[in-house]
Design brief:
By secondary structure, this protein is α+β, with helices and mostly antiparallel strands. The protein is about 50% helix and about 10% strand.
């Protein structure tokens, strides 16, 4: 590195920062302070692009030197890249079904940005800057919320495991998502068209989803040992909430089970068409059926939304719907249930009473004449 003939130096009493230029003209900031033994230290301030960032790095190093001098145990130094691997192997894989999603998020987005930073040096400003960059790239706010949730959990574990002293993500406020909820419910007419274009292996799965509200993974992974011998209920295991639940089968769902029992010879109720026992996905065939039926904006998960909404419209209470869907709280269930215009109209019409019915029920309509009578009677003593 070539030293500049002149350098900018800023002193802070117990230390200083100064800058040098590289051969290609880039400015690099350096720290100058004394460690816990009184020895002078001059080193590069990694990732510091401004004097403010260099000054912050200087304060951090001086505080660490002071802590070491006082015998305070320092957190383990570890880069974000290295801790991400520890997080995946020690926590995500043993505890989360969705660890693959965490792995993708880390590899595609978080590690390229934070990877070479010391975990202890990541600040709320760094996280806000990362999020702003993601938003400027066109990413939805809800997506950044999922990334913040992952970061928050990682730092929470890092604090517990002694890698850092505090969680910087707790100071980052998540974006509201109330306006991002997708309200797509399949109509009866759309259901008819969809089933007419479903291939033989997909049609029973769609019917089963509409009549049980089960998740796609729960349906494709359904085994015969989970089906009650009577064919009237099933036991859903390995759920997203981690708790088993019992799902009663109506006539349509029971007919699907009966038909599949005659066709399936393996362990799974809906076996793969390619020779294996487990059908991993129906994404391609479902998308094709929707396209042929002229249905847009429908996801397989919307069949679960449709099940819940139809239950509510038939008069089922929210607690029952919550139990059938396997949600841990009613708040989550409310996101899956949508009231249509017809339901709103019937609700307000139920409050309507004709004027003549008011008299029969003992109510007296307020008129100008009645007001005068009340006023006159109040003057009588």
């Amino acid at each position: 590195m070539a030293k500049a003939k002149t350098k900018t130096r800023l002193s802070f009493g117990n230390g200083a920062i100064y800058q040098r230029k590289t051969k290609d003209g880039r400015i690099r900031w350096y720290l100058d302070y004394r460690d816990e033994a009184g020895k002078r230290v001059q080193r590069l301030a990694m990732n510091a692009l401004t004097p403010e960032e260099a000054a912050l790095a200087l304060r951090i190093e001086i505080s660490r030197a002071f802590a070491r001098a006082q015998g305070v145990k320092e957190q383990k130094r570890i880069l974000f890249n290295d801790f991400a691997l520890i997080y995946l192997e020690s926590y995500a894989k043993p505890n989360k079904k969705s660890w693959v999603c965490d792995d993708y998020c880390l590899e595609a987005h978080l590690k390229p940005y934070f990877g070479k930073l010391d975990l202890r040096e990541i600040t709320p400003l760094d996280i806000e800057t990362y999020r702003a960059k993601r938003l400027s790239a066109g990413v939805k706010k809800s997506t950044t919320n999922r990334e913040m949730a992952l970061l928050k959990k990682m730092f929470h574990l890092a604090v517990d495991w002694g890698y850092c002293a505090e969680n910087p993500v707790v100071k980052v406020k998540l974006f509201p998502e109330r306006d991002n909820l997708k309200e797509r419910v399949l109509s009866a007419e759309e259901e008819t068209r969809l089933l007419a274009h479903c291939p033989p292996h997909l049609a029973p799965i769609v019917v089963f989803a509409l009549n049980t509200g089960m998740r796609r993974g729960e349906i494709l992974g359904l085994r015969w040992d989970q089906v009650d011998p009577s064919g009237k209920s099933i036991r859903v295991t390995r759920t997203k909430s981690g708790r088993d639940r019992s799902v009663p089968l109506n006539e349509a769902a029971a007919e699907v089970i009966k038909a599949q029992r005659q066709k399936s010879r393996g362990s799974y109720v809906f076996p793969s068409m390619k020779g294996g026992e487990y059908m991993k996905s129906v994404a391609h065939s479902f998308a094709r059926a929707c396209r042929l039926a002229g249905i847009t904006g429908l996801r397989f998960h919307d069949l679960r939304h449709t099940f819940a909404t139809r239950l509510i419209r038939q008069g089922a209470d929210i607690i029952t719907v919550q139990a059938l869907l396997g949600h841990h709280s009613v708040t989550v269930t409310q996101r899956y249930t949508h009231t249509g215009a017809d339901e709103k109209r019937r609700a307000v019409d139920a409050l309507s009473r004709k004027p003549e019915n008011l008299l029969l029920s003992g109510d007296t309509p307020v008129t100008e004449k009645s007001r005068i009578q009340v006023t006159d009677s109040s003057n009588v003593n």
